[in-house]
Amino acid sequence: MVKTLLVALSALLIVALPAVSVAQMTNAPGFSFSPAQPITSSAGYFSGCVFEPTLTVGYKRLGLNFNSPVAARQVLREIFPGFPLFQQYASLLDVYPLDIKLEKANLLMGGLGLRISNPRSGLAGFFNVFASSPRSVSLTSSTGPGIGQIPPEAVSWSGSQFQWSQYDLGGSYRLRAGLGVIGGVKFERSSVKFSEPEPAPGYTRFVSLFRRQTATFPNYGGDFQLLFTKPYVGIEVFGSYFKGSLLVGAANADLRIPLRLNHRGAYIGFTLRPFLPLGFGVRNLAEQATYSMKQPGVFVEANLESNFTVRQGLDINLWVQGAVTRVRGDGDVSLNGKTTGFFRIFRFPFRFPTSFSDGATAESTINQYDLGCGANASLRF
Q1: pLDDT class for 94, splitting at 50, 70, 90?
Q2: pTM for the full model?
């Protein structure tokens, strides 16, 4: 997407540059707050318009929490036909409430943008794209599937390649000197794959004739995927060397968190080896509990910029930004998996594969905050 934007900006500049001339006009008070005189286009539909491509760099701190208090329910399935043995171990994730938090999301970000404004009419349109560099984060689940632990332990995961991006498309209108209205839509995406649970869940359930063995699940992990669509309106205020805005709008969330648990070996059973080649139990577990939420919410965002003119047509801006987003509504958990019961005598194994599924719904919440600061450079054509 960034490459596509660069190509579009280059094409726009190639078309606009041959037709530009120096316009000796006074900046509209409160709209073009740079004291520099812009070079304006005199061609066709863009007559008198000001073009401002922008390059942005900065820092963003992002925090997020998802809570889904579904009613805990054990998933029971008959593993050995006709025998109610090990039914409670068909699923280890079961249907369980989840409270997961994103931590340590300190991001370096950059962006490109283009603003086209007409000082005479007070109208302007803009498009911006921002993205963070991939980095490692931490996720903590204070409440989640117990996997044999009662009460369940808090689990922390390492998240690799966390990425955040945002596309912002909108327009503004100058009401009077120093005051304007703004509206648009933001598309915001966060995603990360997490693994390496600490502590690794496990329990002592596999019994031999003389000792008990512990089954552990170090590959317990999943993905975090969140998309916000945020239509908004707001006000802008201007001064000679600053610009501020306050935005409010809807935050339509599309959240998906699949938790995966896989274990190829036996995780519950009994054996008489090495004296007798006899054993039975359950093995080859593969299951996924997917927590999802598609609900509308609200967000509030505040922005402040301070402007410095380096030379005619080139401005440097320092900016700070803060936003809070809250979504509340029905969230779902969907559980699917399979496992295999086995009975072995001598070299003759008997296998009993079984599958299971379940789900639940509960009123869930998403809370997100982000704080950012940085600088941008803008050319004015």
Answers
A1: very high
A2: 0.82
